[in-house]
Amino acid sequence: MSDPRGPVVQRQLRDFVAAAIVALAIATAAFVAERNAELADHQLDLAARAMQQLVATRTEVPSAHAAIVEPAIASSRHPFLRHRRAFDGSGSRPLATGPDDKLLYDAANRVERTGAFAELLPDGSGRALAGKPGEGKQIVVVVTDPGSPAPFPLLVIVGVLGLGAALAAAGALIGRRAARVGTFAGVASLAIPAILWHSPIAATAIALVAIATALAQRVGLADRIANSLIRDRVALGFLAPAGLAMLVLVAAPFIIGIVLGFYDHHHGTWTFVGLSNFGEILSGGGRALDDPLNFWFILGVTVLWTACNMVLHVSIGVALALVLSRKWMRGKGVFRMLLILPWAIPNYITALIWHGMFKGEYGAINSLLHAVHLSDVSWFGSFAAGFSANVITNTWLGFPFMMVVALGALETIPRELYEAASVDGASAWQRFRHITLPHLRPALGPAIALGSIWTFNMFNVVQLVSGGKPGDSTNILVTDAYRWAFERGDRYGLAAAYATIIFLILLLWTVFGTRIMRGKEDA
Amino acid sequence: MSTPGSQHAARTAALVRDVWRQRSLVILAHVAVVILVAIVLYPVMLVCKQAFEPGRSLALSASPIPNSVSLDHFRDLFSARGSHDELLFVRQAVNSVVISLLTTIVGVALSCTAAYALSRFRFPGRKAGLASFLVVQMFPATLLLMPLYVILDKLGLLNSVVGLVLVYSTTAIPFCVWTLKGYFDTLPRELEEAARIDGASPWLIFRRIILPLAQPGIAVTALFAFMTAWNEFIMASTFMTDESRYTLPVLIQSSVGDHVANYGLFAAGTIVTSIPVMVVFYVLQRYLVGGLTAGAVKG
């Protein structure tokens, strides 16, 4: 290299820029939080002053609309309509037509119900709404005009960034150790605005980023990451759009979901409860083992459900594929078209149709049973019947997938193999066992792995066919978790813990099922 | 050792026995397949009967042949009006079509590029990426509702077509990526090598060689993405607050709610909703076998 300093400074600035972007994001978050808190303080203060002044002097404060509101009186013509009159700086009027009257009316109701309050409107406009009891039965309410938040301090940021870059570059020019000190000092200088904005947490985080960057430089990690980014930029570029979408809409909710499992939700407030949700689930919540709400009971049902379905799907699917791939089979094309019909019908519709067929004493299934002189079955009256109804429905919609996969795999078997085996005197069973099965395995393995995950989490069928009936006994883990979240008192935290446990079970199943999966993963 | 004559006779007898066994097997197989087809068709015929027979209660006989035929339910379905006097069915059908098509486009575009990277390049984090695409399938989607609701709210994407399309696309991506990656793996690399030597950029290779070759695999992926969006109702009914922004599945599911059940309307809606999926499905089904199993079967 002719001038070893050039690349050194370049590398130094590269690391500085990467770290500075992270630090800037943190500093901006701190600024926004500080600005919002300031705005809220200012607006709530304005609201309080407006109410005070209206009560004391009957005059208005600029950019706030306060009113003293009378108790509600039922309308003489329509008793369900309740009127309120309001006095503000300009006189007395009914609360009905003004632009903010709906807000003020509701605020007055709220004060009567729950007492004084003051808050920013949740619409992001920066308006404050407040109310408190006044003299007698009167209520004082106020809504302010939108507040204008402080602008983003671009000059401060640009100045600090320049200072940081200069520090980092200077360090690089002096020497290797000084380069790291320079990186640290340069990135850490971004903590100054964070301190100005009263956010010690952000300042600490930025300092940590600075330390991490300097350390990464020391062990050469920064260079390795940069090299990898340059070398694999094409691959990463192709991966980036999907990766970004997955990060925001799959990974983020996924992590939030896991975190929520450590909280308890009660009437809109979340409290951290550590592992107690998991404890409650895994201990069965003090219920007997045969109680349908006991986790272990539901797990048993879910495993049984998955096993029954997979056995039926695979055996029916493979049997049909074997028959349909025979030379002597007539009308192959037509049969295949008809047999994949269940796959083409949306599964929630299938579930609703079968629910209707199983329903009641005179449903289609029971009518059929009558027609062949069998006694009818109360399909949602016992565990066995309800469970069977679910399995029948899911098998009806699930076997075509396995059939199609098996058909595809069978097509790849060279005919000569069978002919050679026949010549050697192999029996039909032997041919199936030693030729067909080994060729089916690589295709069916992944299909079974995927199918078992889908079945384990098959919400629609269980929810819409038996709906857990009788008495929650046919629920699987997903539908039970759903009930905890939305039907048994909004226990979101418990439901999230359930989801995490379901996830871990499936993860274990896949890890131990890798042998089946190996056909698909060449990596 | 027996004589040649008796050997011949024994062989003929065995052959005749074999032919008979074979023939009865053939008949048995046909009978079994016909029975299964009947089981597959029966619920479908019941729904058709329900849709064309007047009356809103559940059909009370096992016969799949309607007693009388009317188009009342279809007329009710098409003429249902919402709170703003808009034609609900038309609105929701348009929503469904738009959302499903956009999901297909976005989902397939994102999956194709990702699958190409995972199939053709070796880079650190590749295995972890592949595994993570599989792992996220295991978290029950129903329970991602709450976190997703919060995120869409923060992004201002609640009650918006864009939000729903993004959610559906990302739901479909993992499966699509795996299927496509498997398909790309089976494509011969010689063409790409030749193109690379001639100086083609990776993007050009992807667009002009990989995409045309992978059409069957892409067709299956598109079908899957389309069905994901077309058939979903829980997220649609949670994230869309406006009745006129609901999709068809929400309409159909609510027609047989706990309080009001109109099975005739449900059946008519079912038929109308299922037909587009079935059309797409049958158009693409010739690719289904190859596309789905190509990744798994090699050789």
List the helices and strands and how they pair.
The complex is a heterodimer of chains A (523) and B (299).
Chain A: H1 5-57, E1 64-69, E2 73-74, E3 82-83, E4 85-88, E5 91-94, H2 101-114, E6 117-120, E7 128-133, E8 139-144, H3 154-174, H4 176-188, H5 191-196, H6 200-218, H7 221-231, H8 233-260, E9 263-266, E10 269-272, H9 276-282, H10 295-324, H11 332-339, H12 341-344, H13 347-358, H14 364-371, H15 383-411, H16 415-423, H17 428-456, H18 459-464, H19 477-486, H20 492-512, H21 514-517
Antiparallel strand pairs in A: 1-4, 1-8, 2-3, 4-5, 6-7, 7-8, 9-10
Chain B: H1 4-52, H2 72-79, H3 88-120, H4 126-135, H5 145-154, H6 161-186, H7 190-197, H8 202-213, H9 215-230, H10 234-239, H11 248-255, H12 263-293
Helix pairs in contact in B: 1-12, 2-12, 3-6, 3-9, 6-9, 7-8, 9-12, 11-12
Mean pLDDT of chain B equals 82
State the CATH superfamily name of the largest domain in chain B.
MetI-like
State the order of secondary-structure elements of chain B, H for helix, E for strand.
HHHHHHHHHHHH
Largest sheet of chain A: 6 strands, antiparallel
**Beta-strand content estimate of chain B:** under 5%
How many E-type strands of chain A?
Answer: 10
**How many DSSP H or I helices of chain B?**
12
CATH level 1 class label of the largest domain in chain B: Mainly Alpha
Give a concise summary.
Chain A is α+β, with helices and mostly antiparallel strands and 523 residues long.
Characterize the structure shown.
The complex is a heterodimer of chains A (523) and B (299). Chain A is α+β, with helices and mostly antiparallel strands and 523 residues long. Chain A has helices at residues 5-57, 101-114, 154-174, 176-188, 191-196, 200-218, 221-231, 233-260, 276-282, 295-324, 332-339, 341-344, 347-358, 364-371, 383-411, 415-423, 428-456, 459-464, 477-486, 492-512, 514-517, and strands at 64-69, 73-74, 82-83, 85-88, 91-94, 117-120, 128-133, 139-144, 263-266, 269-272. In chain A, the strands form three sheets. In chain A, strands 5-4-1-8-7-6 form a six-stranded antiparallel beta sheet, sandwiched between helices. In chain A, strands 2-3 form a two-stranded antiparallel sheet. In chain A, helix 13 packs across helix 15. The longest helix of chain A has 53 residues, at 5-57. Helices cover 73% and strands 0% of the residues of chain B. Chain B contains twelve helices and no strands. Classes of the chains: A alpha+beta (523), B mainly alpha (299).
